[in-house]
Design goal:
single chain; 275 residues; alpha/beta; Rossmann fold; seven-stranded parallel beta sheet; 8 helices
Length: 275
Amino acid sequence: MKTKQVVLITGASSGIGKAIAGNLVERGDVVYGTSRDLSRNADAPGARQLPLDVLSDESVHACVRAVLEESGRLDALINNAGYALTGALEEASVGEAQEQFETNFFGMARMVKATLPVMRRQGVGRIINIGSLAGVKAVPFLGFYSATKHALEGYTEALRHEVRPFNIRVSLIEPGFIRTGLGKNSRTPRDFIGEYDPWRVRALESITRYINTGPDPEIVARCVLRAIESKRPKTRYKAGREAMQVILLRRLVPASVFEKLIRAHFQTDFGRPGG
């Protein structure tokens, strides 16, 4: 679709969301960038700001209503809001895990549920979910984050089938590590288990290094642009060389070899007790 679109982006105050908003504004679209705290005011110039808390049904519906009152339609929803919970799976409480899912998965589901009636009435729409390479391969010490992105994979694929009769197209973007504030904005469990310290420290240091040396968020924004402009958008778009290489490796090498490569990548195969 190459005509001007009305686009709503969650989590647009920085990083990937900001880059997506900037590209779409430059393209000439009407872009609504949302965040929980508008005082941060870091979204792309030209994007219209709206407050949004994806944990709140009331906030979600108010946001969608504001877009419709001003623009009269909504052509594309881009679900980008999320954060990472770092640490061993055993260290996180059930409540902390639920908070991770509430933002990364159910927040996205709230947005879809609120916007689908609009798109069905229009007879056209695009939904683009920002996933992660962590949704294809689990990352040690990012276990619950990986789980939310795995859930997003299944949700997106099912939704794509269900809404196709209404001329609504759904796609998933799968970035590898991108140079964003993901690490800085991550959360940690309240209770750490000391036995995990050697492996957790090395894994998180590796993750921080991969984020800091990763490609610019623009690489993800370009994938989103392709998904919006394509007449027949793909189910999945891999953003970056790392994403393409890892997915290819997973298909080509035995599972045991792939697991060893993952442990080596995140330095979790060293310093075993009694080793």
